[in-house]
Write a structure and sequence with these properties.
With 230 residues, the protein is an alpha/beta fold. It has 2 domains: 141 residues, 3-Layer(aba) Sandwich (Rossmann fold), CATH 3.40.50.1220; 79 residues, 2-Layer Sandwich (SIR2/SIRT2 'Small Domain'), CATH 3.30.1600. The chain has 10 helices and 9 strands. β4 and β5 form a beta hairpin. α6 runs parallel beside α10 and α8 packs across α9. Bound molecules: adenosine-5-diphosphoribose.
Length: 230
């Protein structure tokens, strides 16, 4: 039974109305990474960072999964081998679509983290710099998302999945951010067949056995139907 390991990026949530980072007009065209997605930026102006994530959290709670999220949940439920979904996204659309045990390597907008004691709790819809940690009471609450310069979550587990993968799939990622950008190469070393599904060729297209270009809500269901029907 083939083990399928899937990496998703912002492109899978684009058709659910959530902006990507590096497309024209994307988040990084409108915000400076160093201001809103680094520990230094948070230390400098926590209110600005909270406003940035509060806006994304409000959008994410209103967003609905699209056929690509639904197809992956269907694959997990129906495939006779293991299907592991690793996402760079901080929205919860995979879970809303019914996916199980999703690995959020960059954290989640729905989570809050204490910068003083590492306590974690369910984030309120809007967070602010005065929010106190429910455990240590420090006014050091931050979104539980991984910023540039920080280590992504569950990397040891992810590496094991990549080494065991028979098929590795990347959906909706530009392949510009490491370590996720290196996942296809690691899966290749383990002998995996690699499939990229993206709106356009990415920085890592050369790492794949095949690339299927198109909108995720169109190409992902087609691929899932092939896998389940095979
Ligand atoms: N269907 C499929 N792919 C799409 C769609 C769509 N409807 N719309 C956009 N894409 C593709 C784009 O062509 C692009 O290659 O999705 C990719 C999005 O790339 P990025 O915006 O760079 O997002 P991502 O690769 O997920 O970024 C990785 O960078 O800023 C950090 O932490 C952030 O997790 C993020 C990481």
């Amino acid at each position: 039974m083939r083990k399928i390991v899937i990496l998703t990026g912002a492109g899978i949530s684009a058709e659910s109305g959530l902006g990507t980072f590096r497309d024209a007009g994307g988040l990084w065209a409108r915000h400076r990474i160093e201001d809103v997605a680094t520990p230094e930026g948070f230390a400098r102006d926590p209110a600005l960072v909270h406003r940035f994530y509060n806006a994304r959290r409000a959008q994410a709670v209103e967003a609905r999964p699209n056929p690509a999220h639904a197809a992956l949940a269907r694959l997990q439920a129906a495939h006779d081998g293991e299907v592991v979904i690793i996402t760079q996204n901080v929205d919860g659309l995979h879970e809303t679509a019914g996916a199980q045990n999703v690995i959020h390597m960059h954290g989640m907008l729905s989570g809050a983290l204490c910068a003083a004691c590492d306590a974690r709790w369910q984030a309120p819809l809007a967070m602010g710099p005065g929010d106190a940690c429910p455990v240590c009471a420090a006014r050091a609450a931050r979104p539980d998302v991984v910023w540039f310069g920080e280590i992504p979550y569950r990397m040891v587990e992810i590496g094991q999945h990549l080494d065991e993968a028979d098929v590795f799939v990347a959906i909706g990622t530009s392949g510009q951010v490491w370590p996720a950008a290196g996942f296809a190469q690691q899966a290749a070393r383990g002998g995996a067949w690699r499939v990229e599904m993206n709106l356009e060729p990415s920085d890592i297209t050369g790492d794949f056995s095949e690339t299927r270009l198109g909108r995720a809500s169109e190409v992902v269901p087609v691929w899932v139907a092939e896998v389940l029907g095979a």
